[in-house]
Write a structure and sequence with these properties.
By secondary structure, this protein is of the alpha+beta class. The protein contains 2 helices and 9 strands; from the N terminus they run αβββββαββββ. It has 2 domains: 75 residues, no CATH class; 31 residues, no CATH class.
């Protein structure tokens, strides 16, 4: 993933924080117990009150962070990969990208990263 000038400019306008590891990240999403940040070198990080910080490298968690962050920073949408040929609708969210509880509370599906599809089988 490479940051184009518009994504970089959008990140530079966000509040930035220095993580315990020393990496500076721009906030892209935050909630009560955790959130996501992106470094200007395109690395994504997750933080949590109980789990500390970690760099995101697996595709599902990267998509989840980008989908969550794109609500406040629409420029991040261009970093979300297109659905590959042969991919399957996510069985957990039935291709919607969202999970819900009792029909009222919705959140991004953690099985597919909020995109509604999973990688094609090898």
């Amino acid at each position: 993933m490479t940051l184009d000038p518009e994504v970089r400019a959008a990140l530079e306008r966000r509040t930035r924080h220095r993580l315990a590891s020393g990496v500076e990240v721009a906030d892209i999403y935050g909630s009560v117990g955790g959130g996501y940040g992106m470094a200007l070198d395109d690395r994504l990080f997750e933080w949590g009150l109980d789990s500390g910080e970690r760099e995101l490298t697996d595709p599902i968690h990267v998509r989840l962070a980008l989908m969550a962050g794109s609500r406040a920073l629409p420029e991040l949408r261009r970093l979300i990969p297109s659905r590959p040929a042969g991919s399957l609708d996510c069985a957990r969210c039935e291709g919607t990208g969202k999970s819900c509880w009792s029909g009222h509370f919705q959140w991004l599906c953690e099985a597919c990263g909020g995109v509604g599809w999973t990688e094609p089988p090898p």
